[in-house]
């Protein structure tokens, strides 16, 4: 008996996480997102808004799609970039 719920026809969920020099903090957020039971329906996008640390590398380690801004453009621009990059029918930003 298959105990996994069927995801056939279920919507794809895009989670957008924006960061600026958040390499030391972003891992907890990304780990929490990855613990969700969405499976293949989850699209994890991290927008690196001009970071000078290794935020993008941390995000990549969690399997996130990383979109980089060459320079800091601000939170609103980062969110908009992430939403445009998402392919899900539902988008969620976990907040600041």
**What order do the helices and strands follow?**
EHEHEHE
CATH architecture: Alpha-Beta Complex
CATH topology: Spore Coat Polysaccharide Biosynthesis Protein SpsA, Chain A
Largest sheet geometry:
4 strands, parallel
Summing up helix and strand content along with how strands pair, one would put the structural category as alpha/beta
Verbal overview:
It is a single chain. This protein has 96 residues and is of the alpha/beta class. It has a single domain (13-92), classed as Spore Coat Polysaccharide Biosynthesis Protein SpsA, Chain A (Alpha-Beta Complex). It has helices at 26-34, 55-61, 75-85; strands at residues 13-19, 42-49, 65-69, 90-92. The chain has a four-stranded parallel β-sheet with strand order 3-2-1-4, with helices on both faces. It is globular. The mean pLDDT is 87.
What would you say about this model in short?
The chain is α/β, with parallel strands linked by helices. It has three helices and four strands; from the N terminus they run E-H-E-H-E-H-E.
List the helices and strands and how they pair.
Layout lengths: L12 E7 L6 H9 L7 E8 L5 H7 L3 E5 L5 H11 L4 E3 L4
Parallel strand pairs: 1-2, 1-4, 2-3
């Amino acid at each position: 008996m298959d105990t996994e719920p069927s995801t056939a026809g279920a919507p794809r969920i895009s989670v957008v996480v924006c960061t600026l020099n958040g390499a030391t903090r972003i891992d907890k957020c990304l780990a929490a997102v990855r613990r969700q039971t969405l499976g293949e329906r989850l699209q994890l996008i991290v927008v690196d808004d001009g970071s000078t640390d290794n935020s993008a590398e941390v995000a990549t380690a969690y399997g996130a799609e990383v979109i980089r801004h060459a320079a800091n453009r601000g939170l609103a621009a980062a969110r908009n970039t992430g939403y445009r990059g998402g392919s899900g029918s539902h988008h969620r930003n976990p907040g600041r």
